[in-house]
Amino acid sequence: MLSGTSYDAVDAAVGEIAFAGPDLVLRPLGLHTEPYPAGLRAELTACLPPAATTLEAVCRLDTGLGRFFGEVAARADQALAGGHADLVVSHGQTVYHWVADGHALGTLQLGGAAWIAEATGLPVVSDLRTRDIARGGQGAPLAAMLDSLLLLGGNGDGNGGVVRGALNLGGIANITVAGPGGEVLAYDLGPANALIDAAVTEATGGAERMDTDGARAARGRVDRELLAGLLAEPYYRLPPPKSTGKELFHAAYLRDRLAELDRRPSADDLVATLTELTAELVAAACRTHGLSELVVSGGGVRNPALMDRLGALAAPVRLVRPEKFGLPAQAKEAYLFALLGFLTVHGLAGAIPSATGARSGAVLGSLTPGAGPLRLPEPHPGPPPRRLVIER
To answer: How many CB atoms lie within 10 A of CB 213?
Structure first.
C-alpha cells in the first residue's frame, strides 16, 4: 500500500510473488484505490512542512491514517484476493524526510502498522526507509529495486542498443538509470506535481488541488524569467545519490521565488512554468545519462501537458509506459512496495547501495504480527534475484 507525496489517495496493489529459479515472478491481481476522507486529508495538510504542528496532532494523525490504511487493506484483500492475502506491506504517509547538507538523517512515515494488522489479521511490513538511512543511505528512492529487476536488465548492446531509464512522476520526480560501470543509480530530480499542486491550490483557495488534465498549463505561457530563477535551485546541482521532498518544495518555497520577480504571473502562466520546470529537469537527466528510452509512471502520466513537454524537450528519447512491461502506470509504485515486503520476509535486501548511497544493502522495514503467531518463510538460500518477470 502506498500514499504518495501528493496524498490524494491510498493505492493498494494485490499480487502473487514467487521465486522461479534465479528470477522472481509477479502476477498482478489488480489495484484498489480510495481517496482520503476530506477531514483526514485536512489533518494531514495541517501537519506537513512548512506548517508548525504539535505532538498531539501527529499522534492523532498517525492513528487516523493507520485506521484508514487498515480499512483500505481489508477491502483490497476481499475485493482482489478473496480474503486470502498473506502479507500487507504499507509504505505509510511521509510527513517529514530530514535531509541536511545532502545527507538524509531521518524520515517519518505515519499510519500505525498495528491498526492495519488489527483490521486485516495479517502481518504487516512497514517503515521501509529508515534502515537504509541508518546505513548512510538516502532512504529514497526505493524504486531502484523494481526498476533494476524489471526494466534495466536489458540495457545496452544486449537489447538492440536501447539505454533505458525509469521515471516516476509523483509529487517528486525520481529517476533510475544504469551508471557508467553498470551500477544502478536512482535519485530525486526535483518537483513533479508538488509545486504544480501548490500553485493550483493557492490560486483557487483550495477549490482545486491539481491541474486536472493539464488544462491550466495548456492555457498558460511559460515565464522564462521565473523559470530561470527556479532552475537556479542549488539542489539540482548536487550529485546523486540525493533525495528531497515537500520539506523543500512547498507553497512557501514557491511564494519566495515569486517574490523575486517585479510582477506576478497569472495562475495559468505559473502552472505552465512549473510544468516546464519538471520537463526541463527530466530532459536534462536524459541527456546526462545518454538515454534512448524512458519508462514513465506515476500520477504525472495523467497530465497531457506535462507529457507533451517531456516528449518535446527529451526528444529523441522515446517515452513509454510500464504497461509495455506488464505493470499499470498507476500501480507500479504500489507493486514496488509489495516486492520490497516480499524480499524482507525472505531475508533479502530491498535497497541498492549504489542507488541510495548506503554502505551496504539492507533488509528493509519492521514487522508487526497479525492475528496469529508471526511465521516467516525460511531465508532465501540462493543469490538475490536477477530479474522480475511479470506473469500476464
So the answer is: 12
How much is the pTM? 0.95
Say if residue 120 is in the same domain as residue 155. no
Positive or negative: CA dihedral 218, 223, 228, 232: negative
Residues 212 and 121 in one domain: no
Do residues 300 and 183 share a domain?
yes
Boundary of a domain, candidates 295, 325, 355:
325
Residues 303, 160, single domain; the answer is: yes
Helix pair angle (304-314, 267-288), 10° resolution: 40
Same domain as 248, residue 158 = yes
* Cβ count within 10 A of residue 379: 10
- The single residue listed with the C-alpha cell 534465479 is 22
The most distant pair of C-alpha atoms in the chain lies apart, rounded to whole Å, by 64
Q: Is residue 352 assigned to a domain?
A: no
Q: Could you list the residue range(s) of the whole structural domain that residue 204 is in?
A: 144-325
Mean pLDDT by 10 residues, the chain (392 residues): 90 97 97 97 94 97 98 98 98 96 97 98 98 98 97 62 94 95 96 96 94 97 98 97 95 95 95 98 98 96 97 98 94 97 98 97 98 95 94 89
Give the residue among 3, 27, 10, 8 at the shortest CA–CA distance from 74.
Answer: 10
Euclidean distance between CA atoms 187 and 135, whole angstroms: 17
